[in-house]
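Inverse folding, one chain.
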């Protein structure tokens, strides 16, 4: 991602929104290559704790939850790790 001038992102969370792929199949494929991935966080208004709470939403959070995955992130990843993950994702 492009960065704002005079700043560095912290790479805290890397996510993908998949258009034509089943997120579960992608997660399973990544797991075969020892790459941990998971679904995006479930929207708060869909969690039991928030059942009945007032919600202002437009469906975007549900769409992202259905189509999105989280990839390994953080400062502990080497450039080699990132390239490997990118290669496996591109192979899908």
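Residues assigned per position:
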């Amino acid at each position: 991602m492009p960065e704002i001038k005079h700043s560095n992102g912290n790479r805290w969370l890397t996510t993908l929104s998949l258009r034509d792929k089943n997120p579960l199949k992608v997660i399973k494929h990544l797991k075969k290559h020892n790459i941990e991935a998971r679904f995006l966080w479930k929207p708060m208004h869909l969690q039991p704790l928030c059942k009945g709470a007032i919600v202002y939403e437009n469906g975007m959070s549900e769409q992202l939850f259905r189509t999105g995955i989280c990839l390994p992130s953080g400062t502990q990843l080497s450039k080699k790790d990132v390239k490997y993950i990118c290669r496996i994702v591109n192979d899908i």
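The mean pLDDT is 91. The chain is about 35% helix and 10% strand.
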